[in-house]
Specification:
Four copies of one chain form a homotetramer. By secondary structure, the first copy, chain A, is mainly alpha-helical. The first copy, chain A, is built from nine helices and no strands. The termini of chain A are far apart. At the C-D interface, helix 7, helix 8 and helix 9 of C face helix 7, helix 8 and helix 9 of D. Chain B binds a DNA duplex (31 and 31 nucleotides) through helix 1 and helix 3. Chains A, B, C, D: Keywords: DNA-binding.
DNA sequence: ACGTAAGCGAGACGGTACGTCGCGTCTTACC
DNA sequence: GGTAAGACGCGACGTACCGTCTCGCTTACGT
């Protein structure tokens, strides 16, 4: 009895309506009324659940990140040993399952706040992996770790964004992971086609 | 008759006001009235120059990109030969000079449209460099070029964003370039502290 | 089984709350919630007894008028003979006993509907007295009877309203009656201080 | 240039719309939107002129009272000498010209506030006449002057209210005045048909 | 140099959306 | 069966900005 059945139904309807409509017309162009109409809910009811549409989006994103975290937790341990690519694989699969939501978050809709939430979450995982590696493998980063982390997350997010926006049958997740792993192990110089530097 | 002196002054005032205010309170929170008040200009006058605040921001961004392009053109040729890091260096210097504007663009203010303009411009330059290398050095990319480009630009933008948001005396541009070059040549595996892969 | 004890209690609480609150803040400014809170009753309960706050007020007023009628019936017969002032005296005493309710009714609270109910009741009594006089004393009104009735009731209500709004120890009811009687018998010309007209 | 032509037009339209609609459906039943639609004016425009519909009604009433005052001022002086009935005559004529407005004010629409304004204005004039008489004719009121004033104004307002609500060709103003004068000079006892008291 | 076309400020206006409040209906659980 | 608690659809509130529109005043340009 933790939560009224009606409440659960109403919230679900609002969340779904939000995602649909942002895909169709973009977050800024939406009014609260648009959302409530699509969800078939009174406008006042919206406000009894969320302060404004930003909060709704934030909650939706938070739920998504919680879900992602559930999927990631079992595999980050392993990856801390070396470069397995398992976390990225999980993330790609999650993105495949929740494609629309990933799209709108990664597009920076909603003033980029949800994207920032996402990026921060990735950065947190990245930091965790880094710490794990340093401890287990007794290695020291050779370039500023902050910069390294930023570069990594930026790369990941950019690729992810590109992947979820592909409309034609997209490249399989496993192949993306393979490429990213190659890129991480050998660098862009090699990836571009040059041979190992002198 | 190129442009009335009054017009030039008004536009300048509006552009500056926009940047200041976005830094202070964020793009979405601004009203046209806020901008015109800060610029000490009538609201009607604003509308005789720009359709809305999005257009103003777009123009400001376009001007910035044109300036960046001027600085980049002389050096992209050289970098097409190998990995010189010169274009990134120029960009960092430009960002140092126009710090506030870079910040708000990279934060994704204004619905991320300016950021998309910026990213696209970077992608265009990247594509140019790629083409140049393929032709001059007779090399073939070893991973999907689209993915490679996305990853690269994502990395660049993420690092740039981090760099312009630093408040303490930031790391010198030359050092950032050195690190990025190392990262590109040897990969993240090496950068993390591991030795060359098996 | 005339009426559940709980029901009686609830209605009483609502009526009292209404009167108190209208005195404090005025009818229009009240919400149903205000009333139910003061009465310590659930909002839904209110609606199971009254359609809305207007109906509650109407019922309260109707009860008051029924009570007034009970007090008036024994004395209107006598007054039909001449001008005894007994009905007005009874009304003033009733108003003294139910001061707050009289105040809010006479102020025209609730869109003036209760006041109209009150005025109509007075007019009915007045008509009754008139009819009685015409029959018993064989007199004919010297001015339009409709106008005469309106003037009379208007005078009564205005004086009553003034009397119940006095906060200091008000003029005794008997004295008010005496004055009104003088006024009725001799007219305002005399009351103002002039001597009998030419 | 004291006042923008557009402003004058807008206000006029709102005032007229108010009166029309109150006659049709009553003040309480009106929404601001109803008024602005009838006036063919934007709802926001309404709020740039009046705080709410009560203020609009108050202004309309105030204007009416100012007009009435203009008509009354020349004649109250004369009436201070004796009982000429001229002020009442003027008021009746004014009521004939502005019938709808008088109706809604006298009905107590708008929480009775406009009616109170009207009553107060009458009381002010009455007090003025009283003072004039006391001074010029060296007479002293024979009953409490406060009560006398209330009774008088109440009578006036009641008769006025009845008169403006008549739909059939109403009794001529002059005749009403004659009757009220008779009533004032000789009292209700006489008017009812009885002969002068012993 | 100066008259005139422009740029400009002020602000009224019709709109749209906001976030809030109160309505009257309803469902659920308690006593 | 009367009640309390509270979700819900609805409609109005008063506010904030939007983009458009006069209306006069000021200012810089072109002849």
């Amino acid at each position: 009895m933790a939560e009224d059945r009606r409440v659960r139904k109403t919230r679900k309807a609002l969340r779904d309506a939000l995602v649909e409509l942002v895909i169709e017309r973009g977050f800024t162009a939406l009014s609260v009324e648009d959302i409530t109409q699509r969800a078939d809910v009174g406008r006042a009811t919206f406000y009894s659940h969320f302060r404004d549409k930003d909060e709704l989006f934030a909650r939706v994103t938070a739920d998504l990140l919680a879900e992602l975290d559930d999927r990631l937790r079992p595999v980050v341990q392993d990856s801390a040993v070396g470069f397995t690519g398992k976390p990225i694989l999980q993330m790609l699969r999650h993105a495949r399952d929740e494609r629309d939501l990933y799209r709108i978050v990664l597009r920076g809709e909603g003033d980029g706040k949800p994207l920032r939430m996402f990026t921060d979450a990735c950065a947190r995982v990245a930091a965790q992996e880094f710490r794990g590696r340093s401890e287990r493998n007794a290695v020291e980063p050779r370039i500023d770790p902050e910069l390294l982390a930023r570069a990594w997350v930026g790369e990941q997010v950019a690729v992810l964004q590109w992947w979820v926006e592909q409309d034609a049958p997209p490249m399989p997740a496993e192949e993306v992971v393979r490429m990213l792993l190659d890129l991480a192990l050998r660098g862009r110089y090699w990836a571009t086609g040059f041979d190992t530097p002198a």
